[in-house]
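Intended use. Records like the one below are meant for learning the mapping from a protein sequence to its folded structure. Do not use them to infer anything beyond what is encoded.
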Amino acid sequence: MNSKTTAYLLLLITSMIWGFGGPILKHTLGYIHPFNFLFWRFTLTSLIALPIFIWYIKRNPIKVEWVPKMILAGLLATTINLSFVISGFARTSAIEASLLISVSPLFVVIGGCVFLKEKLNNRARLGVAFALMGALISATGPLIFGNNRSNSESFLGNIFILCGGLVWMIFVLLSKRWEKEGIKPFHIASMSFFVGPLTFLPMAILEGGKLPSITSIPQQAYFGMFYMAIFSSIVAYTAYETGLSKIQASKADVFQYLQSVWAAPLALVWLGETLPSTYLIGLLFVITGLILAEFKPGAIKGIGLLATLNLPLRGHHLANHK
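Structure written out for the chain above:
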């Protein structure tokens, strides 16, 4: 198996892990409070990542002046972003949440154009507009076409997911600036793992009214916690970074959009969710937008929006603490 085939296989596996993560997270939240889940998930992840982190910093030392920036990056990528994401998953369907998350890289594209003065051709602009219109249709559908409490909750959950995407945009744009100073992606990823337990602990206490206890975790939540801590974080991170090192980033970012493709069948069969008409309409807009933005006319070859803008997608997996 050549390196390109290996890369595509690893990136496909990564997209499946992150795609399945949405329905698994939604199922798990039926048995454990959201911030309690995040606290224990990142406690487990940080314990596993600690020896890897120690080994890494011995070879790539951290400068003292980097620490505040790394902490801020951890707060943005983990604490703030995931507070929005998990609050969204607790209220909306896994199908809608996964679609909205899959288009979050487009926020980075827009941020790059607005704040970094990056250039985007007309075809890519049209594609981004279509994809964002699709996300907007899917997000507002529950409010526009429904009037009961459940639809209002779903709409609020969708807005939380989109807010998480905006926070992620800020994180990526800052990371781009800080990478020029020598801060490595794994420095930021590791800090995000360690910031998680420290910041989610007070939230879990406020949520449950007491200190989180491992003995109080229902057995039904074990699988989801281990899946998100080990597979969605460490395994997917390793596979993504390995795959990305073997091919151009312009070809790797297309796999990010497959997450909703994997999430929908699992949510339909396992969780018994349905496909709202607004989701299907929104999905059509998103697919049209991605075809316009990611593929050149007459050729099945990705132009890679984030590569075109010279924006790093390394670390997008952090949203899949997402």
